Amino acid sequence: MEIRRIAFSPPDIGKSEMEEVCKALDSGWITTGPRTKELEERLKNFSGANGMVCLNSATAAEELTLRLLGIQEGDEVLVPAYTYTATASAALHTGATIKLIDSKPGSWEMDYEQMASAVTERTKAVVPVDLGGMVCDYERIFQILEEKKYLFRPSNEIQEALGRAAVVADCAHALGAQRYGKQAGAIADFSCFSFHAVKNLTTAEGGAACWKHLPGIEEEELYQKYQLMSLHGQSKDALAKMKAGAWEYDILAPYYKCNMTDIMAALGLKQLERYPKMLRRRREIIETYDKMCGRLGIYHLNHYERDRISSGHLYLTRIPWADSRMRGEMITELARRGISCNVHYKPLPMMTAYKNLGFDIQDFPNAYEYFTNEITLPLHTKLTDEDVAYVAEQFEDVVIHMRDDATKASQKKINIPGEKHVS
Length: 423
Description:
single chain, 423 residues, alpha/beta, seven-stranded mixed beta sheet, four-stranded antiparallel beta sheet, 41% helix, 12% strand
């Protein structure tokens, strides 16, 4: 057998991106400037959001959004237990207390009924996660928060405009995903995208925060607040200061430094031009994997449903008869055959940082159960048809052999001294 080398998620960078980066370098403007502003406008139009600001990561986007909402020590933020640490750590950076919510049985989505029970008068935000590019049930989330708004006590003008706890979507995986006929970015109150190197659309690092219109608050006002927080509280960005005679600025508050550069934006602009084609390619790969999982009878994310269209960021499978040890052996065997796989995710209560905060995985049985037999297959736009066929063929072979070995092991008789076994 010829072994192919299949990376898990390399960036898909083409000639057009390289040329645009070189143009940015040649322009002499490499920090936040005209390309960043252009990318913000194009992303806003693509997602259907009312406002968009580009930053250096989705983590920064979430933290600045929570700070914009006035969230601080004494407040609570509800976060799924089944997610990457950035979802929770951004809330912790504000001084807020996080409440982790278990998953629904057999699902990656948070348990919305448990979420409803967790809402108190201190709850200021919920951060749902669109895992793998699958948009959460925001209608249910909004319904819960509307029903619980009698508990809500606003502490700034944005909270007053909402009149309930905010929905701040972790859309790190979901650019281009849809639900209810709307794009991710135009569904939650605020949404946070990632353009990290492993994401569908990359700026190497990078992210963006966007929002829907809030009654009584102008989009430009929100945009300027993000600008202040991302640039040390400086009253003018570098582009504005370059205008003739406009050197002088003020520092309005001792804020943070997390702006996007024009070099990053140059990558993003060309990636966005190619993005519809990239989404179509991801769908083709997913359809091949779906057929393979159908033959094996194993669970996988249903990326394309009647009311939900995924961005196709991750291909999660679950092996129903496997435990975590067997899952590890399968990943090792696939690596031996040249295929890099991953696990999404190890639940937060299993991590040292969250254990130290008092969380115990025993309180999150559904998240743990989902994790124990999950394997994520390579899914990216640098895969050829031959690569995809190879991954599907090898994964199927490994699963069948492991399943047969597991079946044989469970059927073995245990020889007990002094007892006679009858075959």
